Amino acid sequence: MAVALGSELAQEKKPKRERWSDLSDIRKREAKFGLLFISPWIIGVLFFSVGPFLASFILSFTKYTIVTPPEFIGFENYHEIFTGDPLFWKSLQNTGAYVIGSVIIRIVLGFGLALLLNMKVRFLGIWRTIFYVPSVVPIVALSIVWLYILNGRFGLLNWFLGLFGIERIRWMSSPDFAMIGLLIMSTTWVGVTMVIFLAGLQGIPKDYYEAAKIDGANVFQRLFRITIPLMTPTIYLNVLINIINAFQVFTQVFIMTDGTGDPRDATRVYVLHIFDHAFQYLPPEMGYSSALAWILFMIIFVFTAIIVASSRRWVFYQN
Asked: Which of 41, 86, 120, 178 has its CA 20 to 30 A from that of 130?
């Protein structure tokens, strides 16, 4: 006790400037240790994210085939993309169709499943697991499974449609149905969207629904007057995530079309077009593919900026 009291008195006798300097030294020491512990992450971001990001911007203004040094050519890559590359517009069109279709499917289906799984039903945990598990299965394995499901001759989907008298559809070998097949496949990853919606639904106070029931509001009135307005922040988040992911679709298309984008380029999405110029063509066109990548970055940036700017008008937060 005497030692503790003595140390406290000594602290009180210290001038305020000395006490502040001691506190400042402690904070500096903590900051140094904090930077030391996160330095592997900082180094990784600089070398594997920021570095390649800036390098690709510089390379987009060059002619670079890996085997020869980059040659500065200005805006020729961009000029060639917009005026002399028909597959650019085709891949952009296919990607746009996939983005619109897959985002609508995941938002609507994910929201519907979340509403159902937010109810008090038997085996609720099992149902939630069943719908979410496909989202964590490796995309390569899922793509191979979907190749069998969408097979035009003996696929599971054609067998199911045959029960209703619908003729077999050549899903991945017909230009008219190939993109539809990819959109059907996109339902596999609806589990992530569903879980986010489910978290949002569970954050809505039940008092609102009880008050609405007392006032005589039916199910649809409660849905459109309470649930959807209060879920707009979650809808906003899911729309952003799904748009950004959909623009970067690649792996499943590459596997299911053997990297060709067939039939007749009906499934040639934008990232597959970038991949072809960077790794499939000889000699590789790294400068050209970098320009394509930066165009995609700007497209995603513009769409994200529009959604963020417009969110003030349709996103409502609880007080």
From this structure: 178
User: In terms of C-beta distances under 8 Å and separation of at least 24 residues, what long-range contacts does 80-87 make, across chains too?
Assistant: 80/288, 81/288, 81/291, 81/292, 81/295, 87/265, 87/268, 87/273
Question: By three-state DSSP, how is residue 237 classified?
Answer: helix
Residue 54 shares a structural domain with residue 89: no
Same structural domain for residues 98 and 190? yes
Judgement on whether residues 96 and 183 belong to the same structural domain of the protein: yes
Q: Which two tokens stand for residue 157?
A: 């989907």
Residues 308 and 238 in one domain: yes
pTM score over 0.70: yes
Angle (CA) 271-189-164 rounded to 5° is 105
- Structural tokens at position 116: 């159902």
Q: Which of 192, 175, 79, 60 shows the shortest CA–CA distance to 137? A: 192
What residue has token string 């990784």?
44
Residue 209 lies in a domain: yes
Whether 50 and 191 share a structural domain: no
Residue 47 is inside which H or E element, if any? none
- Residue-wise pLDDT for 45-100, tens only, equals 999 999 999 999 999 999 999 888 999 999 999 999 999 999 999 999 999 999 99
Q: Which residues contact 103 (CB under 8 A, 6 or more apart)?
A: 239, 242, 243, 246
Q: Are 252 and 143 in contact (CB under 8 A)?
A: yes
In percent, the amount of the chain with pLDDT more than 70 equals 92
- The pLDDT, as a whole number, for residue 299 is 97
Collapsed DSSP state (helix, strand, coil) of residue 71:
strand
> Within this chain, do residues 245 and 297 fall inside the same structural domain, yes or no?
yes
| Contact (Cβ atoms closer than 8 angstroms) between residue 234 and residue 294 | no
179 domain-assigned: yes
Give how many domains the chain has, as a whole number: 2
CB contact set of 173 (below 8 Å; sequence gap of 6+): 152, 263
